[in-house]
Design goal:
Blueprint lengths: L5 E7 L3 H13 L2 E7 L3 H9 L5 E2 L2 H5 L4 E4 L6 H8 L8 E4 L5 H11 L6 E2 L1 E4 L19 E4 L7 H13 L3 E4 L2 H27 L4 H6 L3 H7 L6 H10 L1 H24 L2 H26 L4
Parallel strand pairs: 1-2, 1-4, 2-3, 4-5, 5-6, 8-9
Antiparallel strand pairs: 7-8
Helix pairs in contact: 4-5, 7-11
């Protein structure tokens, strides 16, 4: 790791995810210059003032001499970004992303980049906070977290290794899976939970007695709905991009909910308790395993 060095890393979308990656690479001492690209000049200026990035540039200018270009914008923007980048993408520059969906970005990359798609290595860091924006960026956000790599057949091994090394320098552990498997897994354990959290808050907020309900909401409501404070734009794009896998998970969840609804209607406490007991045991087992591997409280 001591020989690892990226002379010029470009972060497209300097918010929580991109800003935290920039800070992590700076903390590790493996980057020379971090260049920020984005839609908001004010946000980029703030990122520079905070020391998250060193320079602000257009995508065209940022691409010149770039070692690594990391797309951290909402996933719906990937095609337009890759299309704009293609004429300026130099040989030897690696492009990767940090999006929560992979099948869609691979299609976008193959369409927008053509023969240059070999330079694009899809990736997804499994880390985040309910806060967003560059002010929420942390230099240890990826410490001990997982990053999924979904390499293309066209990728050179050295390019995949470089993306892996970048995330490992940020403190993460990398895993490889196919794009289809990735999207199915995260529809279940990430995309559906966010959708449910947004749905519950919307249900309560739309009630006639919303103010009263929220006034008495406690820790359970707080914990379940924490992620509903996440970026609406980002999660809108994720739900649309991964709609097939997400719709399957919604249908499965509806079946479980319908079963519970029937048991409540029938007053069958024993049946409810059996479901709750299995779920509780699975959650405790998962929490203990996670604590053992990430040094956090279960």
């Amino acid at each position: 790791m001591s020989d690892l060095h990226f002379s010029r890393v470009v972060i497209v979308g300097v918010g929580l995810i991109g800003g935290s990656l920039a800070l992590s690479l700076k903390r590790a001492g493996v980057v020379g210059t971090v260049v920020g690209v984005g839609r908001s000049a004010a946000s980029l200026e703030k990122a520079k003032a905070l020391g998250v990035i060193d320079e602000i540039a257009s995508l065209e200018d940022a691409a010149r001499g770039a070692s690594m270009i990391v797309l951290c914008a909402p996933v719906a923007q990937n095609f337009a970004l890759l299309h704009a980048l293609e004429p300026h993408l130099q040989p030897g520059t690696i492009v990767t992303d940090a999006g929560s969906t992979k099948s869609d970005v691979i299609v976008a990359a193959k369409t927008a980049l053509g023969d240059k798609v070999a330079q694009f290595v899809p990736a997804h860091p499994i880390a985040g906070r309910e806060l967003n924006g560059v002010e929420a960026a942390l230099d240890d956000l990826y410490l001990g977290k997982k990053v999924v790599l979904c390499p293309l057949q066209e990728n050179a091994r050295a390019d995949v290794a470089a993306v892996r090394a970048m995330w490992e320098a940020a403190g993460a552990h990398c895993h490889v899976m196919s794009a289809v498997q990735h999207d199915a897994v995260f529809a279940s354990v990430s995309h559906l939970p966010h959708l449910l959290s947004y749905a519950l808050v919307a249900q309560v907020a739309n009630a006639e007695d919303a103010a009263l309900k929220l006034d008495f909401a406690g820790g359970g409501f707080r914990d379940f709905t924490r992620i509903a404070a996440s970026s609406p734009e980002m999660w809108r794009d994720i739900c649309v991009a991964n709609k097939e896998a997400l719709l399957r998970e919604i249908s499965t969840y509806e079946a479980v909910l319908a079963h519970l609804k029937t048991q409540i209607k029938n007053g069958d406490g024993d049946a409810l308790e059996r479901v709750f007991a299995r779920a509780s045991a699975a959650r405790l087992k998962w929490g203990a395993a996670r604590a053992a591997t990430t040094n956090v409280e279960p």
